[in-house]
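Researcher: I've got a protein sequence and the SMILES for zinc ion. Could you write out the 3D structure of the bound complex as structure tokens? I'd like something to compare against our soaking experiments later this week.
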Amino acid sequence: MRRRLAAAVLLAAGLGASAAPAGAAAADLPDATVKARQHVFGLANVAADGSLPRGKVLLSWITVSTFAAALDGHVVLLDGYVHKVEDRPNYVPTTAREVEALRPEAVFIGHGHFDHAKYAGRIAARTGAVVVGTPEHCAGARAEAGAAADRVRCAATVPEGAPVGARAHRIDVLGDGVEVSALKHVHSAAEAPDGEQHESVLGHGPLPDLPSLLLHPPGPSVLPGLDPSGDEGGTMLYRFRIGAFSLVWHDSSGPLRERGAKVVEALKAMPPTDVQVGAVLGFGELTNGVRDPVDYLVALRPKVFVPNHHDFITEYGTGRAFEPAVKAELAKRGPSSTEFRWLADPRDYLKTERLTFDLASDRWLDASDAPRLQLTRRCAGGRLRVELRGDVDAVRDVRFTLGRRQVARDTAAPFRQTIARPALSRSASRRLRAVVDLREGRGERTVPARSRPRC
Ligand SMILES: [Zn+2]
Ligand SMILES: [Zn+2]
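Model: Sure. Here is the predicted complex with zinc ion in place.
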């Protein structure tokens, strides 16, 4: 009972669990874990004790939208599914058992459909990995773990039933070095054709009968008591920030034009994205081609784009038709400098070479990374109204100062304060500044007012 209560509190607080992460105790890892990590991440990337390198991000494509990731040494799973559900390596060169043996610290759930979340509960129960997702995803993982449900620890991102556009600015699961945030977005869906003649994979190449396959939703859901045609328990996009490097992963791409105006705003307001790993296959293909995946790409403008989900239901390499379609659709939207690192199944399963990113690379440093901020001021009845404007999404704390004296503080947008006359008269200095603490460990910035306050 006590344990359940603790788990509930943990969930409600949206905080990570307190048990030692698997990655922290590399010296104690069993042989099976060392071997699994060598197979999934590549022999050269894994130390003799099973630890993964600091200073790098490695992604290993398991299947569909599931990746094993090593984030500056932290081993995690993005989704928890292994396609074909076989008990020995075959077309898919790994198994659920081997993925479980990786001993991830956390399993991030994009959404609850079986082809994304099927093994999350089992992996969490057996390894102690924290399930990160919506409360609905957590409930699904616990249901899936069956008798071991009590052992599934969860970190909630947004409240149950949260609206599309809801955000979790800081999910504390991987310590200070890896900042994690999340955005509730939209599952793929077929809206009516918008008449803009978007690029499509339909009718190109040796595809299976895509429309008929897509019309049968990728259910059943792993969520109990919900419509098996696929209530996914919310669809989450995750952003990982390690130093100057940022990674965005999403396992579905929904019709944002019809259902996600707030999502578009949020994506555009995010600090620049270095690597985006995005779903390119979805129900929207039926009516508006690859419009929706490309809308995500255009909003995020990543330096590198990596596709996912194009191996299911279009497998045996037929998903390669998505590459020219996505590129042509992107080209219609204007110039783009995004580099594509296309993946083909089964060739690129478990291949980390093309998905290895050096955190120290100059490529991730970007002058445009600095948020544009402006401090405005005006007088009203002898009092001073100050406001920090611009890319305030990147801000988590603002101290307004006159000279060396702090006159006001704000920890949530809008960063707008009124400073009363006594505070103004106490300060000999008339230099008004905002000392801004940026999110995601990007440090402190001082934003001066353009003119001196006189009231
Ligand atoms: Zn789905
Ligand atoms: Zn799916």
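Model: DSSP finds 13 helices and 21 strands in the chain. The pocket of zinc ion (ligand 1) is lined by residues 111, 113, 187, 218, 232, 252 (CB under 6 Å).
Researcher: Great, I'll pass this along to the crystallography team.
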